[in-house]
Design goal:
The complex is a heterodimer of chains A (312) and B (51).
Chain A (H helix, E strand, L loop, with lengths): L2 H7 L14 H52 L25 H4 L17 E6 L8 E6 L11 E2 L10 E6 L20 E5 L3 E7 L3 H4 L26 E4 L18 H6 L3 E9 L6 E14 L14
Parallel strand pairs in A: 2-3, 4-8
Antiparallel strand pairs in A: 1-2, 1-5, 3-4, 5-6, 6-9, 7-9, 8-9
Chain B lengths: L1 H7 L4 H27 L12
Amino acid sequence: MTTDQVATTSPSPPRGPGGFRDEPIRTTIRGLGQLFITLGVVLLLFVVYEVYVTDIFGAQKQAQAKESMAQRWATSTPATSDPPAVPTTEEDSGAVVAPPSDAQVVDPAERTRTYDTQIGQGFANLNIPVFGADYGFTVVEGTTAEDLYGNPGHYDDTQYPGELGNFAVAGHRVSKGAPFNALGTLNSCDAIVIETQQEWFVYRVLPMPEEAAGWNAAARPGCADVAPLTGAYSGVVGREIVDPSDYAQVLPIPHVDASGPEAVAAASQRLITLTTCHPQFSDRERMIIHGVLTRTYAKADGFVPAELSEVG
Amino acid sequence: MYTWIWRHLPGATWARAAQSFALFLVVVALLFFVVFPWAEPYLPFDQVQVG
């Protein structure tokens, strides 16, 4: 692209002292060619930016959210005064022994939320064991572009983990850390484990549309607690592909267009809903994953739910 | 355009090459930190929410 190159490769007429000023057509064509090459390079750079650079930025933001939540959890004592359902007596003897799993099981109805959230701040960890033991994201409050950069974000007008209604979370499928990159590979009964300051909530993906009719609760381990939903919930399945405008998906009873306290009061299920873009690399539609709460554990030192090791 | 830049950079060939590379890096940084973040919301693959 240097002057030398052009001069040696083309049988050009003698040039005046003004260089290319004597050859306006050639100059114009060269300029156009350079413009197109430049645009091509810019487009390639944009791909690099989307695929690699935003992931780096996203990972930084997620690390910050995780770090700041860990600090808040370590320093703040929850506002609740009632002791955990099963006090850990082992603490007195010095050595921390993990209590048996059954001893930590609690009724979600007896748990009340002990934390407040702030837009952009993390308040829970989301683990999907089938995505690997290292898959874990801190969920922040809010679903603006800023909140979702690197983090799954909680729809701030939906319910919280373990509550009656719908705990709804959005996340990127491509770029910006892509927390929900692999939602398309989730199967029914796969565990989605939410960790809050006080509890572990184990949700499981509902039966897929094609499985609902002849549902076999023994098909896979973990399916025992999962069944197709009926009544007001009929039609709520493990995975749906919907229009971007389908806000009812994150309402207390999905598909029932009612919000507010009355809708929450009418809810009889404790659901989780994950939303991301679909198809991958586009946002023409949305992929929706619905899950149902199957188990709740009180946290205790050394205790980790067995569901976390259900690596696929 | 590139010829024009090349002709107006001072110094020997290697110095010009180094300056060209520095200019390229500046442009890439501008794209990555200013232009692309600005353009992103207008492109059709960034929305993951419903409603």
